[in-house]
Design goal:
By secondary structure, the chain is an alpha/beta fold. The protein has nine helices and eleven strands. It has helices spanning 20-26, 43-59, 79-84, 112-127, 150-154, 169-184, 202-207, 234-248, 277-280; strands at residues 16-17, 33-38, 69-74, 92-96, 104-105, 137-139, 142-145, 158-164, 191-197, 215-220, 223-227. Strands 6-7-9-8-10-11 form a six-stranded mixed beta sheet. The chain has a five-stranded mixed beta sheet with strand order 1-3-2-4-5, with helices on one face. A hairpin with a 2-residue loop joins strand 6 and strand 7. The longest helix has 17 residues, at 43-59. It is elongated, with a radius of gyration of 24 Å. It starts with 15 loop residues before the first strand and ends in a 14-residue tail after the last helix. Belongs to the protein disulfide isomerase family. Keywords: Signal. InterPro entries: PDI, Thioredoxin-like_sf, Thioredoxin_CS, Thioredoxin_domain.
């Protein structure tokens, strides 16, 4: 029998209060959880109170109709557990999918609209028909990928992928430029412009170590090659694509869109040492990379 701890000096009793045993037993179970890691003295936590209480009134209902559990953990009491969950500030709002012990931290505005949008996006993903998770659909020129289609789509060739969250303000500001980019390159078979919603496709985003939104990655044959760090506008994106295509054009097999086997093409990079360095650069122009293996 699961013990649910009720009562708190901050949030209403409608918000389920978890201690270490109940958290470990319930989170990752048969219902998704949205957990507020808080401290009673925290001013931001106090300002969040009416919103979090309202979410609990809506979602913490009895019976089979319950879609989501709204919970709380007092980190002044459950300090070791909060440390294990990576809580470094209050409040930390973390969404846990069914069967997942690792959560997705909410980064948006702490108001009812932002939180409801975040919840709806996550719940909608679970209500989709499983066949839809195998369909690659274009949207304004960009391919819309998901956990079911990502690997098959990017396993061959060059890809420029936007990892985003719908509630992310920076993503929203960049959306138009990304659509323009996709429309510009929709007939260019040498590169694919795509996007993936990390609130709905946590598995793929975790695999590519996405830590913030938007994250823009250049992927070749299913492997991350470069992270885009430039201006988030059309000109910046196009310049980056040109640079990446130029830098990696000789690595792709034109027929199958895969990186050529090292046995098929010799290594044209000359390895220099203290013994041959001066002689190697004595004539013509040399382009040298100085590096350490680690």
């Amino acid at each position: 029998m699961v013990k649910i701890c009720l009562g708190s000096d901050l949030y209403s009793d409608k918000v389920l209060n978890y201690d270490f045993p109940t958290f470990k037993q319930r989170v990752g179970g048969d219902k998704p959880h949205f957990v507020n890691f808080f401290a009673p003295w925290c001013g931001y936590c106090k300002r969040l109170k009416p919103v979090w209480d309202e979410l609990a009134e809506k979602y913490n209902i009895d019976g089979d109709r319950q879609e989501l559990v709204i919970a709380k953990v007092d980190c002044t009491v459950e300090t070791p557990m909060c440390a294990d969950e990576g809580v470094s500030g209050y409040p930390s709002l973390v969404y846990y999918e069914v069967g997942e012990s690792k959560g997705l931290k909410y980064q948006g505005k702490r108001d009812l609209i932002g939180l409801e949008d975040f919840i709806s996006n996550n719940l909608r993903d679970k209500s989709k028909d499983s066949d839809n998770n195998k369909v690659v659909s274009p949207e304004n020129g960009a391919l819309v990928l998901n956990d079911g289609t990502f690997q098959d789509t990017v396993k061959n060739g060059m890809h420029f992928v936007k990892f985003f969250a719908p509630w992310c303000g920076h993503c929203q500001k960049m959306a138009h430029a990304w659509e323009e980019l996709a429309e510009n390159f929709q007939y260019d078979k040498s590169v694919t412009i795509s996007k993936i919603d990390c609130t709905e496709n946590k598995k793929t985003c975790d695999e590519f170590e996405v830590k913030g939104y938007p994250t823009l990655l250049w992927i070749i044959n299913g492997k991350k090659v470069e992270k885009y760090q430039g201006a988030r506008n059309l000109d910046g994106f196009k310049q980056f694509i040109t640079e990446m295509k130029t830098a990696h054009k000789n690595k792709l097999d034109n027929e199958e869109g895969r990186i050529a086997d090292s046995k098929e093409s010799p290594n044209l990079v000359v390895e220099l040492s203290q013994n041959n360095f001066e002689n190697a650069i004595s004539q013509g122009v040399s382009f040298v990379k100085f590096f350490v293996p680690w």
